[in-house]
Amino acid sequence: MALAFAALALAALLAAPVARASGHETLNVRSALLLDMSTGRILYEQNADEPIPPASLTKVLSMYVALDQVRAGKASLKDTVKVSRRAFSTGGSRMFLKQGETLPLNELLEGMAVSSGNDASVATAEHIGGSVDNFVQMMNAKAKALGMKNSVFRNPHGLPAAGQHTTARDMLTLSRAYLAQYPEALRYHSTRYIKHNKVITTNKNPLLGNCEGADGLKTGWVFASGYNLISTVKRGKTRLLAVVLGAETTQARAQEVNRLVEAGFRSASGGGKSVASLLADMKPADYALNLHKTNSEAYAELRKSAKTGKARKTAVAAAKTTATAEKAAPAQKKSSSKKKKTTVTAEKAAPAKAAQKTAQAPGKDKAATKAKTTASKAAKTTKATAQATPALPVKQADRKAVVRAEEQEPAPKAVRKKSSATRSTADKTPVPGKKAAPREVADKQG
User: Fold this and answer.
1) CB of 169 within 8 A of CB of 257?
2) CB environment 419-435: b (16+ within 10 A), e (fewer)
3) pLDDT 10s digit of each residue in the chain, 446 long?
4) What is the largest CA-CA distance in the chain?
């Protein structure tokens, strides 16, 4: 009996660690890696070589290639790029470019990092590579040069394509080299939201603003991969680089990468505990995140921008009214002065006319002469008046002024379409050649 009880107890002790490791010492994602960039040491690894579609993580490589060309002097961040029909028509997440518009390469890179703009990726690829196909060849050559042995790229943005895949290890290799070569690129990746063509798009990196020291790097999602994220966080002299691929939800992606990073900093600070063991010790309160924070701040910025714009329009209108009044004042003063002079001249002329009338009264010849003279003066006055005030040109000028004023007037409130910064903005692929539907905030991009 005692022997049987001891056997059961031993079995329970052996089983407990196994259950704990499978449930808590691993992350709820398909694959993951954590690197201490300060020391070059891998702190955590989970299925790091499993092939998986890269989704929008592809844009890190695209930006790397573009910045290489800028450094080589073959391109400039100030280059003016014209948006092609192909770029405009690219579906998925966008920064909402318009066909035919021009903008600096610098803004396209920002759109790739923040909006995860597939349209910006194509525009950049066409500008840097001359064509999308040439640019993709440059991407694969760069990946090979970096030692990304298990990655193949078919496009510059990461939309689904046959044969396109990567691994967590290759993504770590890419990101490590990218940050080493272009640390200044973090200014793109740490930007929380941008506004282009009256549309605000937000950065989907859940650690920005939620995790102390988070300043990059890139999110991605397609159905075949799930939710991916490369994240970098710096505290003091320690910078960690985390890659998680294949989370089932945005919430799982956010919590798991935050859990990994927090465990990494605890391990790096000393104590001898591994990241895996620290993952098991962490409580949900240690890594929970507010996923709506960035979007909420974007909505607040939108409302602030709308109020500022309205106030600015009111101020401009008031300034125009004041300027018009100031211009009209001298004209009115001049008109008043002319009227006064005319009155004085008439008063001076009155006695002379009276004397002339008195002198001409005795004879009929004098009366006839007076009538003829008066008629002649009246005709001359009428002719001079007609020449001085042509009626038709004035009316035409007034009509044009009214038309201009009507064009500048805002639409009546009853006619204006009501908009809401919080309405659903699920992304829709535009029909080629047609304008994408306008929206204030695009908040459902992968």
Assistant:
1) no
2) eebeeebebeebeeeee
3) 444 444 444 444 333 332 233 346 799 999 999 999 999 999 999 999 999 999 999 999 999 999 999 999 999 999 999 999 999 999 999 999 999 999 999 999 999 999 999 999 999 999 999 999 999 999 999 999 999 999 999 999 999 999 999 999 999 999 999 999 999 999 999 999 999 999 999 999 999 999 999 999 999 999 999 999 999 999 999 999 999 999 999 999 999 999 999 999 999 888 789 999 999 989 988 888 888 776 677 667 667 767 776 676 677 777 777 666 666 666 555 555 555 555 555 555 555 554 444 444 444 454 445 545 555 555 554 444 444 444 333 344 333 333 332 322 233 333 333 333 323 333 333 444 444 433 433 334 45
4) 163
Cα dihedral 145→149→155→160 (10° resolution) = -170
d(CA 291, CA 209): 10
For residues 153, 159, 161, 167, the Cα torsion angle rounded to the nearest 10 degrees is 50
CB of 166 within 8 A of CB of 151? yes
| CA 438 from centroid of its chain's CA atoms | 13
The answer to whether the beta carbons of residues 164 and 155 sit under 8 Å apart is yes
CA distance 106 to 28: 36
- Residue pair 250/206 in contact by the 8 Å Cβ criterion: yes
Amino acid at 20: R
- Angle separating helix axes 364-388 and 293-360, nearest 10 degrees: 170
Query: Per DSSP, what are the bridge partners of residue 247?
Result: 227
Are residues 166 and 31 in contact, defined by beta-carbon separation less than 8 angstroms?
Answer: no
Which residues are identified as catalytic? 56, 59, 116
Q: Report the distance separating Cα 241 and Cα 100, nearest Å.
A: 38
SS3 for 145? helix
Distances (CA, A) of 9 to 1, 14, 23, 129, 407: 12, 9, 21, 67, 86
The pTM of the whole model exceeds 0.70: no
| Interstrand relation of 199-202 and 441-442 (parallel, antiparallel or unpaired) | parallel
Structure tokens at 296: 């909420």
